[in-house]
Write a structure and sequence with these properties.
17 helices; about 500 residues; single chain; mainly alpha
């Protein structure tokens, strides 16, 4: 069946479907909430989320992650992970609640204190849900994982958050939406994957779990700092309004990326855990994914960067206009984010769990210096530093993954050239669309014209000659969309396996 295998392909398919549905829900809800609440309120909520995401990394400590990595699993492994997840979750919840005044003071925003206190409860809920969630991923049951993600978001934001915001609840609507979403995730995960909950504080395999936990904890802290330094310093050096503008742009830029990685990374991690002793197969899957990112992902994000200003005008309105340039720069760096996200499972599945942490430490120092020096100059400077940092992280972790799999970058050069050529078609399509509609000054019309013209310019040559995508990317497309095979020219359509064998 090729590099990923039937179970891996099925997992990615379910993850992709659920990600698309969640993308639609998330985009719709965020647009309504942003238009209703405004940048100031979103900046206030962003402060709470910065604290919460850091606290979640602390409360996780990798106990449940070890369940995904173990070759075989016993009840004692699950009981130990559950026990300590809940205990650390309780401790983290209490700590965040008590530290809320100091944390709000750091951002010079007293109104953030109740937000932080309420969101502290999510630390416990997230920690308690982790064992069942990772057990579902271990089973490659991404149908259940996807349904939980979509259902919890729909209940939390669509059924609770949006109605509360429209009724004038302000920041409380965002806090309630997050807590409800987290609570539903906990209940649904355990219902679909019940597991032993009898406390177990120590057993013979605890040392291995703690070793994995320490590596996950250190890596998570470094990744959190690298992912959030920009918002921490914007909130500190600028103001809540600026943080709201930046955070919405960042969330919109990473939304398709987060959903794409949410679909690919867990499946790749779980599948890769089963291929730890089969480096050629793991390397083939990795190269195929990278080729697809270069050929399809780069042009897609170039297109999104080109339409960013019109997208902000249409979705969020004039109050969010300053987010347009930030969104452009961040969109251009998103392919690097995907490469980084697909490279980290390689390090973990090849016994290099400490490398992600160690290799990114110099980048953490470099990024901190850059953000501290430039974040105070405005949103554009902060966005430029954030984009550059993502590219550097992708390069460092990507090279480490290639070395671990004994691969070279040179076979990917033709894929990069294909991506650049398709990106050029995107540039022409958007330019034609924007030029044709400039006199109307209508963001919706401009987006429609740019999208249709770009689609025609890109799709026509690919439909006429799909092999221009390259065998690696075409093989990945056919693997998930078998109907595409009938459009392949030059004789009989190649099978998925034959295309897989032609990978660089």
């Amino acid at each position: 069946m090729g590099a990923l295998g039937r179970s891996g392909v099925s997992a990615v398919k379910w993850s992709t479907v659920s990600s698309l549905v969640r993308f639609a829900l998330q985009l719709g809800a965020q647009v309504v909430l942003a238009r209703t609440l405004g940048p100031q309120t979103f900046g206030l909520f962003a402060i709470g989320m910065l604290v919460l995401t850091f606290a979640n990394f602390v409360s996780g400590f990798g106990f449940s992650w070890s369940l995904l990595q173990r070759p075989t699993l016993q009840n004692e492994d699950i009981r130990f992970a559950w026990t300590w997840q809940v205990l650390v979750g309780l401790l983290t919840t209490a700590s965040v609640y008590l530290l809320a005044p100091l944390l709000a003071g750091y951002f010079h925003e007293p109104a953030a204190q109740p937000v932080i206190k309420w969101l502290a409860l999510a630390c416990l809920l997230t920690a308690a849900a982790a064992p069942a969630s990772y057990l579902l991923q271990r089973d490659l049951n991404f149908r259940a994982v996807g349904l939980i993600q979509v259902g919890s978001y729909a209940v939390g934001y669509v059924l609770v958050g949006v109605p509360m915001a429209l009724s004038g609840w302000g920041i409380a609507s965002l806090v309630a939406a997050w807590l409800v979403q987290t609570g539903v995730t906990l209940a649904a995960s355990y219902a679909l994957k019940p597991h032993p909950v009898r406390p177990l504080f120590w057993y013979s395999g605890a040392g291995l779990a703690l070793g994995t936990g320490r590596a996950v904890f250190a890596t998570n802290i470094v990744n959190w700092l690298l992912n959030n330094m920009d918002r921490v310093l914007i909130g500190r050096l600028l103001n809540t309004q600026a943080l709201g503008l930046y955070n919405v742009a960042y969330n919109l830029a990473t939304l398709p990326n987060t959903l794409l990685l949410g679909a690919l990374q867990p499946a790749f991690m779980a599948t890769g855990a089963r291929l730890q002793d089969q480096l050629p197969r793991l390397g083939k899957a990795y190269l195929q994914m990278l080729a697809s990112v270069l050929v399809l992902g780069v042009p897609a994000f170039v297109f999104l960067a080109l339409i960013a200003n019109d997208l902000v005008r249409l979705l969020y309105g004039p109050a969010w206009r300053e987010s347009g340039w930030v969104l452009q720069v961040l969109f251009l760096s998103m392919p690097a984010y995907v490469v980084w996200g697909l490279s980290t499972p390689v390090l973990w599945n090849t016994g290099r769990k400490h490398h992600e942490f160690a290799l990114q430490l110099p980048l953490l120092v470099l990024g901190a210096a850059g953000f501290y020096a430039l974040a105070g100059q405005g949103l554009r400077s902060a966005a430029a530093v954030a984009a550059l940092l993502l590219v550097l992280r992708a390069a460092v972790i990507g090279m480490a993954a290639m070395h671990a799999l004994q691969l070279r970058w040179t076979p990917l050069l033709p894929q990069a050239l294909r991506g650049l050529l398709i990106s050029g078609l995107c540039v022409v399509g958007v330019w034609l669309g924007q030029s044709a509609t400039a006199r109307f000054d209508n963001a919706g019309l401009t987006l429609l014209a740019s999208g249709l013209l770009t689609l025609c310019l890109v799709a026509t040559p690919l439909v006429l000659r799909p092999r221009w995508l390259g065998d690696a990317t075409l093989g990945m497309v056919i693997r998930f969309f078998p109907a595409v095979a009938r459009f392949v020219q030059r004789g009989d359509p190649p099978s998925v396996d034959s295309l897989s064998k032609q990978l660089p």
